[in-house]
């Protein structure tokens, strides 16, 4: 909450300081106009103002070097105007008319706007457009000459698959929209544009398939997006945290992906997708706990493999959350539950360990998180070294130094490996976080503490919602029909219905694409 | 087009179905085989459970039928239209009291069992407090959420019971079931009386039927839900009898937990399965407690101006005090008897009264 109020305060101040500039109308005098543009931007050296004459009329083209495409301006604007100038046809026409003629006939660009406020002018100029100013008219033409360097389409780094498309979203909004359109060639695939950030004015697009998505979900997301009040949304993570139902929950209620195929699958299921300019991570919502265990690859492999992988991931989630806690509970409270052979060997290995099981587990758990974080921050080539140093050397040394028991090392290593099998990074982090809660509960109340914590987490999950859809669906409220794609993944030809828990408008259309991730 | 109606504070008929066994199955069954084995010869007790079960299925149907004739009306509103406002208030308070003492008793029992099977040093007070806090947390959330919890935990409970049954096959002896039908009538009556105490909790139907989306289906769903209970009870009873025989069962405190202790899990991962069984059974007991406390809160909400959270703050400490009041096992058992008698009687009383009034009223309006 604190962060949010700080943001609000800042942005309110910001807008009041800028109000007078932004509502200002343009002048008829070209010099005044150019002067005020310069003044507002504090005459930066990348601001290009090319003045020239069109017959006896003074005009100018203004753009920011690097944001606009020089070649386009030269080819489609300046050259055309020069030809006209030579013909000297336009000298007698009155000025507003002249601007209209230039707009309609002389500039060969696909997108031109005729505006009269400084506000619109600035927005266009700063997002790469160029401005055509004519002396004696209080309006200008905004020419779409956007062209800046972009990363080309590459394989998504955060979600790599063995089988599946190799292309991932990029930072450019238009490219991302194209990637989606290439997946779904349906005229009902609609894009609704919002503008985010008082200062950054970034474009944000909500994509959905009308006729599938429930209209109320759409209404709700648009309402929430309009309520966003921030200076800048650096990444879609900002948007996610603004619009999710409960920002205090450890579980993310919005899914994110770099994969167009996954986004498209979400759309055909009746979800919506949010694309923010400047980030390759698009958001998919509503999402539920079941989505946590789904990976696009489940559908690309044959159903038996897909199903087994699903089951494996459920197991992995339980191992991630429960294994260290179980170890603590069994060793410190319920020794009787361990088979006697194993109990003896555990006791023997714990002989020299000076710490109680809980301290031992926390020690190793934190070490593991440190190694993971270090590995993620370092460049790839050094990252591997961390794995070897951490995993092998520290583990081995810790055991022989008698700080931890070898069983503990197995437990921690298994937990780490299990947590990495979860396909959604953001959820995997939540599970690892929850693990520490379980460990604490186990240290105080053993198995009883573990089960109470498990009940508490379930209570939290059943009360959580993602855009009105219960987070625990389709487990509870139970939609048995949706269970064909939950723990099991039945063969693709049998996945003919869209998920019922999303209440799609068009659920009965046996769309075979309908049931993908 | 319907908007996510399940997101509201209403429940589906399926959720009502599961809520009935979730509420009723709890601590009662843990000691039920002992109580029945005491009064019957060999394994005849299943008949007692069966008869009581059938009676209660009918009873559940009647309660749900009564409540669903006044669709989407709270208990207090339809009760006051039938038996005037002051009497309805008294009935509501009496029924709320039932949920209240049931919660306190169950909390106490679970702490005692946990102390017996899981810890030897942790004080009962701590065990009970942590359990109560989790229950309070559950009720502080949405009511529909509670029903979803039932939906999530109930399959796990059935699963673990069946698992214990599966592992117990090796210790099973059919001889324990012989001879059949040797119990006299008084023994059966006694067994029926004790087993009916394991069926407390039906009062929830009086209240929750009002938030079911399709009240017309409620009676059928309540009856089906109720039918799960005797089936599970008979399963557990026969399981205990088959493994331990009548004499041993009659002398074991919690036969089903002892059974879990007896069996051996293939693979040798766990030496003692009883802790695992009991820990998972806690979920079932949690459901019982959460539902009965929530029904108390729900009932009091309708007659007082206090909000849900305020009521919870008032009730929770009182429940803790009542639950911790008995000093020894005998007092706990006495409290349990009181809870069961009171619960069954008040539910029957309220239902019969309201059904009669409802019939009279309809006759009158027809004339």
Helical content of chain B stands at over 70%
Reported by name, the CATH topology of chain B is Amino acid/polyamine transporter I
General shape of chain B: globular
Biggest sheet architecture of chain B: none
Uncertain runs of chain A with pLDDT below 50, 5 residues or more? 1-21, 509-517
Question: Which H/E pattern describes the elements of chain A?
Answer: HHEEHHEHEEHEEHHEHEEHHHHHHHEE
| Total count of helical runs of at least 4 residues of chain B | 14
Let me know the number of strands of chain B: 0
- Total E-strand runs of chain A: 12
Main β-sheet of chain A: number of strands, strand sense, barrel status? 5 strands, antiparallel
Secondary-structure element series of chain B: HHHHHHHHHHHHHH
Identify the quaternary structure here: heterodimer
Largest interface pair: A-B, 38 and 44 residues
Give the count of helical stretches of chain A: 16
Kindly, what is the distance between the CA atoms of the first and last residues of chain A, rounded to a whole number of angstroms? 33 Å
**How much of the residues of chain A is beta strand, in percent?**
5-15%
Form type of chain A: elongated
Overall radius of gyration of chain A: 30 Å
Task: Chart the SSEs and their pairings.
The complex is a heterodimer of chains A (517) and B (367).
Chain A: H1 2-22, H2 30-41, E1 47-54, E2 57-64, H3 70-87, H4 95-106, E3 112-115, H5 118-126, E4 130-134, E5 140-143, H6 173-183, E6 189-196, E7 202-209, H7 215-227, H8 236-243, E8 255-257, H9 260-269, E9 272-276, E10 282-285, H10 297-300, H11 303-332, H12 340-349, H13 357-377, H14 380-400, H15 406-420, H16 425-463, E11 465-466, E12 469-470
Antiparallel strand pairs in A: 1-2, 2-4, 3-5, 4-5, 6-7, 7-9, 8-10, 9-10, 11-12
Helix pairs in contact in A: 6-9, 11-15, 11-16, 13-14, 13-15, 13-16
Chain B: H1 13-24, H2 28-39, H3 45-68, H4 75-83, H5 85-117, H6 124-140, H7 143-168, H8 185-196, H9 203-208, H10 218-251, H11 255-262, H12 273-303, H13 308-324, H14 329-366
Helix pairs in contact in B: 1-7, 1-10, 1-12, 2-8, 2-10, 3-8, 3-10, 3-14, 4-5, 5-6, 5-12, 5-13, 5-14, 6-12, 6-13, 7-10, 7-12, 11-12, 12-13
């Amino acid at each position: 909450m604190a962060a949010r109020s700080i943001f609000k305060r800042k942005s309110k101040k910001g807008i009041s300081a800028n109000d007078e500039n932004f509502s200002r109308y343009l002048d008829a005098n070209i010099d005044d106009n150019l002067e005020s543009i310069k003044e507002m931007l504090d005459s930066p050296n990348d601001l290009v103002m090319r003045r020239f004459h069109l017959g006896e009329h003074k005009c100018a083209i203004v753009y920011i070097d690097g944001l606009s495409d020089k070649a386009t301006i030269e080819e489609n604007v300046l050259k055309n105007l020069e030809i006209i100038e030579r013909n000297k046809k336009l000298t007698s026409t009155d000025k507003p008319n002249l601007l209209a003629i230039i707009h309609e006939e002389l500039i060969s660009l696909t997108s031109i706007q005729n505006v009269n406020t400084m506000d619109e002018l600035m927005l266009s100029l700063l997002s790469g457009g160029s401005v055509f100013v004519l002396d004696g008219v209080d309006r200008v033409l905004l020419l779409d000459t956007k062209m800046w360097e972009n990363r080309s389409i590459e394989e998504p780094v955060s979600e790599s698959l063995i089988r599946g498309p190799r292309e991932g979203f990029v930072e450019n909004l238009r490219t991302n929209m194209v990637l989606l359109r290439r997946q779904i060639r349906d005229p009902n695939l609609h894009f609704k544009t919002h503008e985010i950030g008082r200062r950054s004015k970034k474009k944000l697009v909500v994509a959905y398939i009308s006729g599938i998505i429930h209209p109320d979900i759409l209404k709700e997301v648009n309402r929430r997006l309009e309520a966003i009040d921030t200076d800048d949304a650096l990444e879609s993570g900002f948007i996610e945290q603004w619009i999710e139902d409960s920002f205090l929950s450890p579980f993310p209620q919005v899914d994110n992906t770099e994969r167009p195929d996954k986004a498209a699958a979400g759309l055909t299921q009746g979800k919506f997708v949010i694309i923010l300019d400047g980030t390759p991570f698009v958001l998919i919502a509503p999402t539920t706990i079941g989505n946590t265990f789904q990976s696009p690859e489940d559908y690309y492999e044959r159903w038996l493999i897909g199903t087994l992988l699903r089951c494996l991931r459920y197991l992995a989630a339980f191992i991630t959350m429960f294994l260290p806690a179980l170890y603590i509970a069994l060793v410190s409270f319920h020794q009787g539950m361990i088979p006697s052979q194993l109990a003896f060997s555990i006791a023997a290995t714990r002989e020299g360990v000076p710490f109680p099981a809980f301290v031992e587990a926390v020690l190793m758990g934190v070490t593991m998180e440190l190694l993971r974080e270090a590995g993620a921050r370092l460049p790839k080539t050094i990252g591997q070294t961390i794995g070897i140093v951490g995993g092998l050397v520290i583990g081995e040394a810790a055991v022989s130094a008698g700080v931890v028991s070898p069983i503990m090392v197995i437990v921690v290593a298994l937990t780490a490996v299990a947590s990495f099998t979860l396909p959604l990074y953001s959820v995997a982090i939540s599970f690892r976080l929850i693990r520490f809660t379980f460990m604490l509960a186990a240290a105080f109340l053993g198995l009883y503490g573990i089960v109470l914590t498990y009940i508490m987490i379930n209570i939290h999950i059943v009360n959580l919602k993602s855009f009105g859809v219960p987070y625990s669906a389709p487990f509870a409220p139970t939609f048995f029909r949706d269970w064909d794609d939950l723990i099991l993944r039945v063969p693709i030809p049998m996945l003919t219905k869209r998920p019922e828990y999303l209440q799609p408008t068009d659920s009965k259309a046996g769309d075979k694409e309908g049931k993908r991730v | 087009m319907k908007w996510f109606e399940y997101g509201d504070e209403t429940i589906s008929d399926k959720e009502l179905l599961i809520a009935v066994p979730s509420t009723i199955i709890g601590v009662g069954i843990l000691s039920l085989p002992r109580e029945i084995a005491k009064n019957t010869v060999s394994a005849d007790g299943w008949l007692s459970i069966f008869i009581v079960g059938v009676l209660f299925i009918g009873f559940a149907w009647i309660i749900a039928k009564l409540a669903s004739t006044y669709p989407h009306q709270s208990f207090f509103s339809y009760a006051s239209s039938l038996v005037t406002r002051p009497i309805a208030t008294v009935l509501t308070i009496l029924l709320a009291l039932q949920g209240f003492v049931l919660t306190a008793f169950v909390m106490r029992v679970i702490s005692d069992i946990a102390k017996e099977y899981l810890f030897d040093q942790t004080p009962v007070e701590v065990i009970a407090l942590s359990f109560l806090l989790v229950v309070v947390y559950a009720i502080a959330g949405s009511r529909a959420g509670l029903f979803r919890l039932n939906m999530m935990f109930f399959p796990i409970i059935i699963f673990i019971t069946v698992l214990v049954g599966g592992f117990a096959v090796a210790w099973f002896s059919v001889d324990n079931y012989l001879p059949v039908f040797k119990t006299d009538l008084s023994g059966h009556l006694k067994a029926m009386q004790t087993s009916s105490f394991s069926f407390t909790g039906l009062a929830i139907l009086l209240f929750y039927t009002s938030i079911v989306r399709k009240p017309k289906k409620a009676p059928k769903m309540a009856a089906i839900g109720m039918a799960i209970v005797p089936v599970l009870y008979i399963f557990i009873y026969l399981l205990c009898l088959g493994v331990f025989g009548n004499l041993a069962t009659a002398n074991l405190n919690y036969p089903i937990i002892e059974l879990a202790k007896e069996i051996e899990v293939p693979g040798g991962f766990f030496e003692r399965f009883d802790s695992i069984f009991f820990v998972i059974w806690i979920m079932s007991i949690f459901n019982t407690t959460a539902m009965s406390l929530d029904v108390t809160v729900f009932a009091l909400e309708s007659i007082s101006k206090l909000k849900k959270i305020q009521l919870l703050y008032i009730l929770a400490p009182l429940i803790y005090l009542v639950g911790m009041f008995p000093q020894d096992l005998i007092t706990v058992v006495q409290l349990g008897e009181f809870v069961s008698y009171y619960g069954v009687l008040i539910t029957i009383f309220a239902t019969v009264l309201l059904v009669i009034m409802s019939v009279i009223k309809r006759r009158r309006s027809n004339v």
